[in-house]
Amino acid sequence: MIYSNSLIYIEIHESEIPWLKVFTQAPRKEFSQCSRDEKENIWEALDIIEKAMINYFIPTKVNIASFGNMLPQVHWHIMARFEGDSYFPEPMWGVKQRIGDVKIAPMEPFIEDLKAILASRLTAS
Amino acid sequence: MIYSNSLIYIEIHESEIPWLKVFTQAPRKEFSQCSRDEKENIWEALDIIEKAMINYFIPTKVNIASFGNMLPQVHWHIMARFEGDSYFPEPMWGVKQRIGDVKIAPMEPFIEDLKAILASRLTAS
């Protein structure tokens, strides 16, 4: 867990690429069933994370997705993708294309800075 | 094309399941690079489409995703998923699970109603 407020929390998903997940605290099956505040907190979190990923990792593309078919609890995936990662240009749920071989900057400084940005920019009632 | 304003347009993606795509009119690579108005129009469109899909198709789950790895132009996928569709519970980009066999309500009345809702609810400068 790298961030939590009364509405959402954010976790790291272990992967060869930088990959975070944003959850609602309350049980919500579909995103449209979230409150206005929950939706806005999630969009703001995804916006902050995407910009931070672009600045720090310089990825080929950022991917965002919300499925919840196995776990029907609203959660969003946000991933920094690179041309040489194992699945590019497929989604991370697609057919493996190769053995990933990408030099990616270390996660720890990114997470430390991101925690500070989230704490200062995200507000929840 | 089922909807268009100055900021976004919406298309049907041909599939065994109800699947729409929301694009920005302007060339934007990443979602965080969109203007505030573009972001809000897209979130509002996804919210309207998701609620309409839930009401009309009664899907097992709605899935939403934005990749753009092959086409780096902001576009969002929104899909009504069903337990018996060809990929469930995998994302539509995952490993095929079966030959899909789901009775899904016809698209035409859904699209006609959705056009009216989008036209009345979405506003663009």
Give the topology.
2 copies of one chain form a homodimer.
Chain A: E1 3-4, E2 8-12, E3 19-24, H1 36-57, E4 61-66, E5 75-81, H2 107-121
Question: How would you characterize this protein structure?
Answer:
The structure is a homodimer of 125-residue chains. Chain A is α+β, with helices and mostly antiparallel strands and 125 residues long. Chain A has one domain: HIT family, subunit A (2-Layer Sandwich). Chain A is 30% helix and 21% strand. In chain A, strands 1-2-3-5-4 form a 5-stranded antiparallel sheet. In chain A, a hairpin with a 3-residue loop joins strand 1 and strand 2. In chain A, helix 1 runs antiparallel to helix 2. The longest helix of chain A has 22 residues. The first copy, chain A, starts with a strand and ends with a helix. The model of chain A has no long low-confidence stretch (mean pLDDT 96). At the A-B interface, helix 1 and strand 4 of A face helix 1 and strand 4 of B.
